[in-house]
């Protein structure tokens, strides 16, 4: 049931929807709404469900990284210089001024190199390692591009919006991991977020260049920008994982941005327990079996700790 429903929705998203599109209220959306009692915050009950789960899907958003001090560039005050992220994170902005966009992403990369996983990231990675020894699996489906899950040790990771530390060539299309600091000499010392800072106006030939033989094309961050569709291959992997999961956690996400906003409600609609860990309730909260308010770094570690019934070899 979920697979056919998800296939239809994923195809529709790939062909019509764009990164950053907020979930709209419609009669079709309402059909998927699971009518149920107010979600429980009983940790003991959640732990019993957790102890029996064989395939756990964990969907994460910006909230899971907030306690690591990661800037979100969203909402009031979410500016880099005088621009908000949605003004810079677009193909059009990059075509107009690749130097300014690269300054913005260089700043974000440098900030992230100084950040570390918090207890929520660590709890997820430790849970994956522990359960894998029991023949159980954990997959992390993240909207974040900060790679803190990877830093914490998560192995089974689907980054639906890409990564700050990958580049894509605008000429040959090659995708490569890149952890250089700075990513190119011309960006050294650039990218300061102060509103009074002048653009560096770096020539295109001095911006990050493709290192594939004979290419030298201009590189761009391998992230999904506003106005771009998500990778259909990644969505197919997400679909496969959500179709087999028997427990789903939603961690630090507002549940208002497609396509991630539809993932957990569809899992819940087929009767799979969904637990939300978030600072506050979201538009999807009442569709889920559990809701645990508060900082993810405080609520998640006890939720994912070893259960007394687990057998450790």
Automatic annotation (TrEMBL):
Similarity comment text for this entry: Belongs to the sirtuin family. Class III subfamily.
Cofactor binding mode and count: Binds 1 zinc ion per subunit.
Entry keyword Nucleotide-binding: no
Gene this protein is translated from: SIRT5
Name of the featured protein: NAD-dependent protein deacylase sirtuin-5, mitochondrial
List of residues binding substrate: 105, 108
UniProt key word Isomerase: no
Function noted in UniProt: NAD-dependent lysine demalonylase, desuccinylase and deglutarylase that specifically removes malonyl, succinyl and glutaryl groups on target proteins. Has weak NAD-dependent protein deacetylase activity; however this activity may not be physiologically relevant in vivo.
Domain Deacetylase sirtuin-type: 36-310
Gene3D superfamilies, A to Z: SIR2/SIRT2 'Small Domain (3.30.1600.10), TPP-binding domain (3.40.50.1220)
Domain notes: In contrast to class I sirtuins, class III sirtuins have only weak deacetylase activity. Difference in substrate specificity is probably due to a larger hydrophobic pocket with 2 residues (Tyr-105 and Arg-108) that bind to malonylated and succinylated substrates and define the specificity.
GO cellular component: cytosol; mitochondrion; nucleus
Cellular localisation: Cytoplasm, Cytosol; Mitochondrion; Nucleus
Family matches, as Pfam families: SIR2
PROSITE patterns membership: SIRTUIN (PS50305)
Active site location: 161 (proton acceptor)
Organism, scientific name: Athene cunicularia (Burrowing owl)
């Amino acid at each position: 049931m979920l697979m056919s429903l998800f296939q239809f929705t994923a195809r529709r998203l790939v062909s019509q929807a764009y990164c950053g599109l907020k979930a709209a209220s419609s009669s079709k959306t309402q059909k998927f709404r699971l009518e149920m009692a107010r979600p429980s915050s009983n940790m003991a009950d959640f732990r019993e469900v957790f102890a029996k789960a064989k395939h756990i899907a964990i969907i994460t958003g910006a909230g899971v990284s907030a306690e690591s001090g990661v800037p979100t560039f969203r909402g009031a005050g979410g500016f880099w210089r005088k621009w908000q992220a949605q003004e810079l994170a677009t193909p059009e902005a990059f075509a107009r001024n690749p130097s300014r966009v690269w300054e913005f992403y260089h700043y974000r990369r440098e900030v992230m190199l100084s950040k570390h996983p918090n207890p929520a990231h660590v709890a997820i990675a430790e849970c994956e390692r522990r359960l894998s020894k029991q023949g159980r699996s954990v997959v992390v489906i993240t909207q974040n591009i900060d790679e803190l899950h990877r830093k914490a040790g998560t192995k089974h990771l689907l980054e639906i919006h890409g990564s700050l530390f990958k580049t894509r060539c605008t000429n040959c299309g090659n995708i490569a991991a890149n952890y250089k600091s700075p990513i190119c000499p011309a960006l050294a010392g650039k990218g300061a977020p102060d509103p009074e800072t002048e653009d560096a106006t770096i020539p295109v030939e001095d911006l990050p260049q493709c290192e594939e033989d004979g290419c030298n094309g201009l590189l761009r961050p391998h992230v999904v920008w506003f106005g771009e569709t998500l990778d259909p291959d990644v969505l197919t992997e997400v679909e496969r994982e959500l179709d087999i999961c028997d427990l789903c956690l939603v961690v630090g996400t507002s549940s208002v941005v497609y396509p991630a906003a539809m993932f957990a409600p569809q899992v819940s609609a087929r009767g799979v327990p969904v637990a939300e860990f978030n600072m506050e309730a979201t538009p999807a909260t009442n569709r889920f079996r559990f809701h645990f308010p508060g900082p993810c770094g405080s609520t998640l570690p006890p939720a994912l700790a070893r259960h007394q019934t687990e057998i450790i070899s």
